[in-house]
Amino acid sequence: MQATGPTAQTHGRIPPVESYLCAVSVSQSVVLRPAGPVQPLDRRVWGLSAVGVGGFALAGLYQLSGDRIGVPCILHATTGLNCPLCGSTRMAAALLRGDLDAAWHFNPVILVLGPLVGVAVGYQVLAWSLESLRLVRLPRLSMSPRVADWLIKGVIALLVVYGVARNLN
């Protein structure tokens, strides 16, 4: 008896087109009421989410205190130069007020990078939370260690270039 259809053996021939219809693996599909172990989140995701929440908490405190409570930049205090992160607290406080123009003035690079990182990290935490509650398993974002290393090096290079450029004035 010979099997037919997408699971048939082709014995050296090119597999039929139907075998390519399922391009997404089972682990990457949405699963309602998942069972089994929950894949833990990477510690870097937890670290980035803590930095984001802490940053906006500090910005809120800075805003509520009338610009009196904040974290001084050690580089700026000792040399008078602005680091690539200088103005981030004031930028986040301006965002909390809804003043996008002032936020752009304080630190445009972090204003662009922050939401991109925030959406990616927020999705990861949401996917993990929904799976931990056994409601739904969403596909997780993942990248190879090599891509992650290049991405981190690229962001660091961007911040260094921005740090130098903002002090040329």
Q: Would you mind describing this structure in some detail?
A:
The model is unreliable at 17-27 (pLDDT under 50). The chain has a two-stranded antiparallel sheet with strand order 1-2. With 169 residues, it is mostly helical. The chain has one domain. It contains six helices and two strands.
Beta strands, count: 2
Low-pLDDT stretches: 17-27
Major sheet characteristics? 2 strands, antiparallel
Number of helices: 6
Reading side by side through the largest sheet, how are the strands ordered?
1-2
Based on Cα principal axes, name the global outline.
globular
Number of domains: 1
Structural class label: mainly alpha
Distance between the termini: 80 Å
Can you give the mean pLDDT?
84
Strand content: under 5%
The string of secondary-structure elements, in order, is: EHHHHHEH
Q: Give the fraction of residues assigned to helices.
A: 40-55%
Any idea what the radius of gyration is? 24 Å
Transmembrane segments: 105-126, 147-165
InterPro entries: DUF2752 (IPR021215)
Keywords: Membrane, Transmembrane, Transmembrane helix
Pfam family, one: DUF2752
Q: What are the defining features of this structure?
A:
169 residues; globular; 2 strands; two-stranded antiparallel ribbon; mainly alpha; 2% strand; 6 helices
Please describe the topology of this protein.
Elements: E1 31-32, H1 43-64, H2 74-79, H3 88-97, H4 100-106, H5 108-132, E2 136-137, H6 145-166
Antiparallel strand pairs: 1-2
Transmembrane segments: 105-126, 147-165
Keywords: Membrane, Transmembrane, Transmembrane helix
Pfam family, one: DUF2752
